[in-house]
Amino acid sequence: MGYSVGQVAGFAGVTVRTLHHYDEIGLLAPGGRTHAGHRRYTDADLDRLQRILFYRELGFPLDEVAVLLDDPDADPRAHLRRQHALLTARIEKLRRMAEAVEHAMEARRMGIDLTPEERFEVFGDKDPEQYAEEAEARWGGTTQWAESQRRAATYSKEDWKRLRAEVDDWSERYTRLVAAGEPATGEAARAMAEEHRQHIGRWFYDCPYPMHRCLAEMYVADERFKAYYDAMHPGFAEHLHAAILANADRQAS
Fold first, then answer.
1. Domains, the chain, with CATH or none
2. The pTM is what?
3. Which range is least confidently modeled, 29-33, 89-93, 187-191, 235-239?
């Protein structure tokens, strides 16, 4: 006897009106009728409806869906392969969208409230939230973390650009210092280390010398930080580490 239009609507999660429309345009004609003329759908009809809804979910217009389903040269395996390829592409697109939303949420939580264009203008290909979750896990309960979040929430695009310019300028000058063979314990390197500490204090949180020492240890112990600095010049991370310690020692004496 097959299935009534109401039953099929319930199975598929569509309205009766939708099924009537599919019948009217020849996209899904029920395989049978009762003596009273009521629509009755067969298992083959349900299979076709499933494929219709799949393509509709992917955004295909109804006329294109009809062409896809009624292609005489198509076979079921070809449809399955097509569906698998489309689903895989859709999943990847949704994954990228989810990542973008997560980054936007994280940026707002950190106070980096910039448009995508502004973020690219300020940070280029460097992701300012790359290690945000880890940083919060390590320092989220500290007063320094709270202070950095409070300050970051007030910064405009121009503030972030000035901050970035300071970082780039300092990095270029320190790279030249390392390349020139200046000793890490020398006056020039210690002065640059002090500038580094003051930059943190000016933009993020008060950074006393003991904390600056801790950061220096992290720059060589954490491979990611070490790789970041050493990409500017071989030995950069170790040199900066030693300069920060020498600067802190000088202040303590």
1. 3-70 (1.10.1660.10), 116-252 (1.10.490.50)
2. 0.51
3. 89-93
